[in-house]
Structures are given as structure tokens and as C-alpha cells.
Amino acid sequence: MARIAIGDVQGCLTELHALLDRLKFSADRDELWFVGDLVNRGPQSLGVLRFVRALGSNARVVLGNHDLHLLAVAFGRHRELRKGDTLDEILQAKDRDSLLEWLLHCPLAECAAAAGPDGVDDLMVHAGVVPQWSVAEVLSLAAEVQQVLRERPEQLFAGMYGNKPDRWDETLQGLDRWRFVINTLTRLRYCREDGQIDLKMKGTPGSQSPGWRPWFELGTRRSSTARVIFGHWSTLGLRIEPKLLALDTGCVWGGALTAVCLDSGQLWQEACAGYREPG
After folding, report:
1. pLDDT tens-digit series, residues 145-161
2. What's the rounded Cα separation, in Å, for the pair 190 and 216?
3. Measuring CA to CA, how many Å separate 188 from each of 182, 196, 239?
4. Distance CA 125, CA 205 (A)
5. 279 assigned to some structural domain
6. Backbone phi, psi, residue 203, to 5°
7. Distance between CA 31 and CA 164 in Å, rounded?
8. Which of 5, 63, 74, 225 has the fewest CB atoms found within 10 Å of its own CB?
9. The CATH number of the domain where 177 resides is what?
10. What pLDDT band is residue 175 in, cutting at 50, 70 and 90?
11. What is the spatial distance between Cα 12 and Cα 7, in angstroms, rounded to a whole number?
């Protein structure tokens, strides 16, 4: 069985099918790892959800910020669609309830043990990890938020939005704690050594303010024991390193949809004409 990780799809179903044809995906042989943001901005979010859900156990999916936005609109009381969203088709679909229920049960983090004695574990999140968290802590905190998401979605979505607190503290409780975990796992790009996060900086490395670094470059990062697989950062682009795999190559923005075999390192890309213009 081949394990194949795929970058942010964001409703680009045509490109996803073309990519899977290119890599000769077989549902009885291969497992697809999706780094989140299955939906929004592209033209076929409904089709993407239906297709990935139908893969069953052949797909591992973590939630991205756009996936959470869809759920907040569907389950929250005061959240509406934003300009540029392409989620109406999902919200009006006859099978919306079953699709949203499936998405609601997708995790915020996934981890698989190394195949061999010399390998490293694979940790998949949508965006990033603060340096204070070990792999075990990432999974524990993700599970904590997932339980609230599944059991009390209205409560969580009522307080999910916002950029504060911006620094991890183990004593954080309730919505502040859950918001920080969600922001880190689904929105993080830049961070300080002390774990302070900034969610407004979105440019390529080198464009950030002094004192800030890409979260994965911090030498104190405790999750560096695993290979972290993530998306979210289209201006970062493709990064393939021994303990890092960045897969958002901006398909919806006119870039490409990228897949990498987690076992062999083989790379496939499918170009996209672009459905949105940056900015």
C-alpha cells in the first residue's frame, strides 16, 4: 500500500481527479492523506466532499481553516458566508447533513508510526505547531478540541474566531484554550521562539517582521522528532525535507495541486488554470 499526501484541494475537483489519474491511484491499494482545506474558493467543493468521503478508510483527512469555516456557518448561530466563499452548493445539497456530519468528525491532527526502525513518525496537521508541543501533546490537544467540536459545536463556533490568546499557556481553559489550539493547527505560519504566534503575516519567509520565524525553523521545536506534513501556506510553496513536507502549492490560485508518496518520495503535480486571483 502506498501512502500519498495531497495538498490543499479547495474545491478543485477536476485537478484532483487529474492528479489521481497521473499517479495511478488505486482505491484497493493506496491511502490518501489530505492536509485540510478540502473546500472553498474553488468551483467544486461539493464534489470534493462527496468524493473524499466516499473513499472511506482509504483517506485520512485533517480539518483546515476553510473546512472549519464551512462547519461554523452550518452549525454556528451567528456566522455567515464571506465574500469569495464558494460553499453555497454544499449548504443547499440534499446530502448536506451527512457530508457535514462526516466533516465534523474529521480530526485536527493525524499521526502514523514509522514503518521501519530507522524511520520517523508522520504527523499531519493543516498549518503548524508551536515549539512547546511534542507530537504526543499535539495529538492530545487536538483530541481535546475534537471532542468539543463533535459534542458541542455551537458552543465552540460561538467563540472560535479571533487571534487571542497569541501565546501558549498550559493553564488556558475553555474557549481561549480551544481557540489557541485551532489557530495553531489550522492558521499558523510565523512564530517566536517563546511560542508567541502571529496570524496576520502571510508572505514568503524573509518578508516577516524582525524576531519572527517560520514555525518549522525554530530550534526549540519539540515536534521535530516527527516528519510534519502540512499545507495552508501557498506563498511558501513545496518543501520536501527529511522531517518536513509542505504541500500547499496554490492550486486554486493558478499554481498546482501536489501529491507526494510518503514512502518513496515520488512527486506528482497537476497544474491549475486558476479560479481566484491573490488578493
Report:
1. 999 999 999 999 999 99
2. 9
3. 9, 11, 16
4. 20
5. no
6. -75, -175
7. 36
8. 225
9. 3.60.21.10
10. very high
11. 11
